[in-house]
Amino acid sequence: MLNLVLFGPPGAGKGTQSQKLIDKYGLIHLSTGDLLRGEISQGTELGLEAKKLMDQGLLVPDAVVIGMIENKLDANKDAKGFIFDGFPRTVAQAEALDNLLESKASAISGMIALEVDDDELERRLLLRGKDSGRPDDADPAIIRKRIKEYNDKTTPVAGYYKNQDKFTSINGIGSIDEIFSAIVAVTEKY
Length: 190
Ligand code: AMP
Description:
The chain is of the alpha/beta class. 60% of the residues lie in helices and 14% in strands. It has a 5-stranded parallel β-sheet with strand order 2-3-1-4-5, sandwiched between helices. The termini are close together. Bound molecules: adenosine monophosphate. Its EC number is 2.7.4.3. This is Adenylate kinase.
């Protein structure tokens, strides 16, 4: 099984590159952000609770996203593999993911991190906000909060995979195709 974690701050290009990886490798895309927005649009209790945090640029509780990922893994037992996009965002989520995969006799193949500086992220997210309709893309203060949450809580997740010798970093600035080629070059080694 090919199980990739695509890592990087909000606006790094994880969603765009995930789509290209799905097309190439036939993997299942698991984006906790997309799953949460799905709950919000369905008006579920979980979605309503999550929205309060998401609109402030804060992370939702670990148990919520871990539960959603567990459901999706169970619902896709015959998958060739998964792309985890925007998950894990804390070390506790990374540990839970390892345990979930181990219980299915599987494991993470590797983490690929897209490196983009903060100024470029802010520029990209404000631009995306014009079309995405996402409230958390529209306000520079919320964008900066999301980047701060990433720097405070999510960057340690890279260390978690470095310790397992599963971490590769890639320059996330360049054309979509250039970045995709760099990702594929790493993926082919798994
Ligand atoms: P994203 O679409 O990945 O940028 O996520 C949008 C928002 O959803 C984040 O700012 C968080 O509020 C929430 N979220 C998505 N994934 C996670 C996660 N793995 N852990 C906690 N919160 C998450």
